[in-house]
Design goal:
Elements lengths: L8 H8 L4 H8 L3 H6 L13 E6 L6 E5 L4 E5 L8 E6 L2 E5 L5 E4 L6 E3 L5 H5 L7 H4 L1 E6 L11 E5 L5 E5 L7 E2 L8 E7 L2 E6 L4 E4 L11 E2 L10 E7 L2 E9 L10 E9 L4 E5 L5 E5 L5 E4 L10 E4 L8 H4 L5 E4 L4 E3 L15 E3 L5
């Protein structure tokens, strides 16, 4: 039997494809040769659960992360995130805003970074007071592609807090391009789906922003079947080529706060112009919030509930005092019950409410 030191580089590279993210770093600490393996182009990594990006430690200024897979916290010094509010996560990258209202796009584990253009002055003036501006200027931010794989990626953000307005940017542009929307119209969520950005409004209107041959003033085009207007927080998900709409409502049911949450899952079929109600999501789990929506195969992770929807804080619409922090937990689609996935309550702070992140150092 060959010793570990005799394994070829190809075999070692193949082994890394079965390792979860933290074990990649542990692998590199074994010896110099193994560390050099990690610097090469490797096979795709093993499927992984997303991490939670949490607050910054006051004394050390290290950023706190929580691994669902290990049930463990990591405290990592990432100077690019020091003092910044995390307003979005996509393809393993974070959108972060500092106290001067300047924003960056950063991969926290490779330290690759893009400086983003200034936000439109009009939206900065809508934020009050100034010290809360970095938490109000961007409601959500996502990417079309991983910047490490596509240099022509695009970023889409929702500007504002009460009434959100979409805007996009791509490398080389000096400013954000704001998309005109009707008055009193706000966008609840955005998703990159089959080559275009799709948006769902507070009026349950589904729209698309085509990314080919933009007009000088690009506009949204309504698509799909008529969706009955719902009053909860809405999310859009690219579910392996199917578009899903999740509506999360919260009602106070007597003294029982755990059963006041309801999530409806709808599949708008854009080709057939019809709607399907989904009672389950084929045993998968969804992770929703300020991030690009994530889904994982629950059968690969014993600690992950099948047919579950995992939320983080996204809005202040459901107060903890009234509803028991229902924006931070798991909804079971089968039992229609609510539970928690995090050992202690994590509430929004001036430097970051919890955000899902799929680590992407590869």
């Amino acid at each position: 039997m060959a010793a570990w030191s005799d394994l070829t580089d190809d075999v070692l590279g193949y082994i890394t494809s079965f390792l979860p993210f933290p074990d990649h770093y542990r692998f590199g600490t074994v010896c110099k040769n193994w560390r050099s393996i990690l610097k090469r182009k490797l096979p795709p990594p093993a499927p992984q659960l997303p991490w939670l990006v949490l607050e910054e430690e006051n004394e050390t200024k290290k950023r706190k992360f929580y691994s669902l897979f290990e049930g463990k916290h990591y405290f990592i010094e990432i100077s690019e995130l020091c003092g910044r509010y995390i307003c979005g996560s996509s393809h393993g990258w974070l959108f972060a805003v500092d106290s001067e209202i300047t924003a960056i796009l950063v991969n926290p584990f490779t330290r690759e970074c893009y400086e983003l253009p200034p936000f439109p002055e009009y939206y900065i003036q809508q934020c009050d007071p100034f010290e809360e501006m970095r938490t109000q200027i961007v409601f959500k931010a996502i990417l079309s592609h991983d910047p490490k794989e596509r240099s022509d990626f695009m970023a889409m953000i929702l500007l504002g807090a009460e009434y959100t307005t979409p805007a996009f940017w791509k490398p080389g542009n000096a400013s954000w391009t704001v998309i005109d929307v009707p008055k009193k119209y706000t966008v609840d969520d955005i998703v990159y789906f089959k080559g275009n950005f799709y948006l769902i409004s507070n009026f349950s209107t589904l729209s698309v922003l085509h990314l080919v041959d933009f007009d000088p003033e690009p506009k949204l085009t309504e698509v799909g079947p008529q969706i009955e207007q719902v009053g909860g927080q809405k999310y859009l998900v690219d579910f392996d080529g199917c578009l899903l709409l999740i509506d999360r409502c919260c009602e106070h049911v007597g003294d029982d706060l755990t059963n006041g949450v309801q999530c409806d899952v709808i599949e708008p079929n854009l080709e057939k112009n019809c709607l399907y109600d989904r009672r389950d999501i084929d045993g998968y789990a969804l992770f929703l919030g300020r991030n690009s929506s994530i889904f994982v195969d629950s059968s690969q992770f014993p600690m992950c509930k099948k047919n579950s929807i995992n939320f983080t804080h996204l809005t202040d619409s459901f107060s903890r005092e009234e509803f028991g922090c229902h924006e931070f937990g798991i909804f079971d689609m089968i039992t229609k019950t609510w539970s928690t996935y995090y050992p202690v309550e994590a509430s929004p702070t001036s430097i970051g409410s919890p955000v899902w992140l799929t680590p992407n150092p590869w």
